[in-house]
Amino acid sequence: MTEETRRFGTEVGRLLDLVVHSLYSDREIFLRELVANAADATDKRRFMALSDGALALPDNAAIRISADKAARTIRIEDNGIGMSKEELAENLGTIARSGTAAFTSQLASAKPEDRPSLIGQFGVGFYSAFMVAEKVEVTSRKAGHEEAWEWVSDGQGEYTLKSAARGAPGTTILLHIKPDAEEYLEPIRLKTIIRKWADHITWPVEIEEDGKFEAATEGKALWRKNRSEITPEEYADFYRHVGHNFDEPFATIHWRAEGTVEFNALLFIPSQKPFMPVEESRESKVRLHVKRMFITDDAKLLPNWLNFVVGVVDTEDLPLNVSREILQSTPVLEKIRKVLVNRVLSELKAKAKDAEAFKAFLENFGSVMKEGIYEDTGHAAEIAALLRFASTKEDATTLDDYIARMPEGQSDIYYLAGDAAHLKTSPQLEGFAEKGYEVLLLGDAIDAFWPGRLGSYKEKKLVSVSQAGNLFAAGDVPEAITNLCTKLKEALGEDISEVTASSRLKDSPAMLVAAEAGPDLAMQRLLRRAGRPVFGLPPKLEINPSHKLVEALAAKEDVKEAASLLLNLAKLQDGDLPENPAEFVKQISAALAENA
Ligand SMILES: Nc1ncnc2c1ncn2[C@@H]1O[C@H](COP(=O)(O)OP(=O)(O)OP(=O)(O)O)[C@@H](O)[C@H]1O
């Protein structure tokens, strides 16, 4: 029989090296990882069999574990979907998941003493087998195929692949246990580990004892138990399992919904940003189960702006053989989604009462939530009410508190969106302090988008300070200034829609403001940087009649050169480059030379 020898992808080599050499405690998680893979593979086969009867699972489908003390092996067998030759090479010989690759580099840069807990809590999937095994043999037959393949490796950089025999589809993993890991050859030890880590697995997990396979799990899904029967550790373990996270949950939401739709739900809000961002997709991965059986994790049970919530929803209101088509159209899912969003929002409202803890939550997930204001008009106001913002008066304020502080005469909510580092010193803020008007300082990239979409909050309009020129129209302006405005407008042409004198400017000679309708300046900047057309009127130029430079210009006949200088200065102040930086430097140098 021909045997092929292949080398692991470089990332795998690194990961294996780190796993094997930095983990001394918590090795038992290898069993959790391998059993979880077996359960996932069985779930996949069950789901595929819905559209292809030939793939149907045997009635006694289970995950079976047996240890052979004499041979020093542990065998883990499943009736799952199996792997073809190329899948064995792809799944076990390379790291396809970007998250795992990123995890590997994080692991490499972590202090050696921190690595065990990182590995122990995160899990490294299949490769954890090499923590306890000096050689791993995987025999797999893909459901629907006749041939089977055997993958063998000692984890030292290479693996072999050869044709093999397996009576039925599924995967067998044979671990040749290292001398220092013999404790795992005891069935009782294996059972304890399964109970601890894998009790929620919905497929039977059986362990061979005295020649007979015995159920190792209670077989009662955690989310179907009463809250009083579950310990905080059990919740946390389950959270780490479903969420691939390694922190403690910030919130655990476990309830049974009864009414128009019935289901059990166990949802978690992480307390840290997941190490793996929501990988390739932004969509919710909350798992849908029907009568305990896993159906899919892409039913989009929660909207994208709650994509950080992980967990399980299990309903009796759908048939076990629910197909993808039914999932897309059934009103049951729509009803479930509604209940879930409202439940998560009310949990967040309750959590918001502890300002300190909630601050950390918002630092992690506040920007994702803001996307909800943009995408989900039905919940926009509720989301906005939960958020906190920096302002010219407070480090963090809610919109309600902002409104409560509004002085007499202020009717709108003012905000300035832009680069967080420059907000506090922006000339756009000039004039607001004098009026006693607080301004929200919005430094997230998404902040350029959502205020315009929200429009108003509790009947107060959200107004960008870059569009609040009306507040500061200068009263009586000397004729020379009015003439200067006209001359500047002539010189600047279509770049500027209007030049006006403003009372808001204190230290700056001029400033750009956006037209009242259309995108504000922060939004225009984003559009420009993204190479997108900027719609709406060009900006206005406000000049400061009491600034020395403006006074001097008002006395001049020809302001052509000065006009473009003034415009470029205003652009610079907003963090934009002048259109032609070299030309601008020439102008400035010439102006300085005149006064030198
Ligand atoms: N028993 C199995 N049956 C079928 N496919 C398997 C089995 N075990 C592993 N695989 C395949 O190998 C891939 C890699 O497994 P591995 O455990 O390393 O990562 P994962 O399960 O994708 O991620 P994680 O362990 O972080 O959840 C799996 O995604 C799956 O496609």
Automatic annotation (TrEMBL):
Subcellular location: Cytoplasm
Job description of the protein: Molecular chaperone. Has ATPase activity.
Residues that coordinate or bind ATP: 33, 37, 78, 83, 91, 98-99, 121-126, 171, 324
Pfam families in the record: HATPase_c_3 (PF13589), HSP90 (PF00183)
Gene (UniProt): htpG
GO-annotated cellular components: cytoplasm
HAMAP family reported in the protein's UniProt record: HSP90
Record-linked SUPFAM superfamilies: ATPase domain of HSP90 chaperone/DNA topoisomerase II/histidine kinase, HSP90 C-terminal domain, Ribosomal protein S5 domain 2-like
Stretches the record annotates as C: 526-596
Region (A): 1-324
InterPro entries: HATPase_C_sf, HATPase_dom, Heat_shock_protein_90_CS, HSP90_C, Hsp90_fam, Hsp90_N, Ribosomal_Su5_D2-typ_SF
Family of the protein in this entry: Belongs to the heat shock protein 90 family.
Protein name in the entry: Chaperone protein HtpG
Histidine kinase/HSP90-like ATPase domain location: 26-181
Subunit structure as annotated in this protein's UniProt entry: Homodimer.
Organism classification: Bacteria, Pseudomonadati, Pseudomonadota, Alphaproteobacteria, Acetobacterales
GO molecular function: ATP binding; ATP hydrolysis activity; ATP-dependent protein folding chaperone; unfolded protein binding
Source species: Acidocella aminolytica 101 = DSM 11237
Keywords: ATP-binding, Chaperone, Cytoplasm, Nucleotide-binding, Stress response
Keyword Membrane found: no
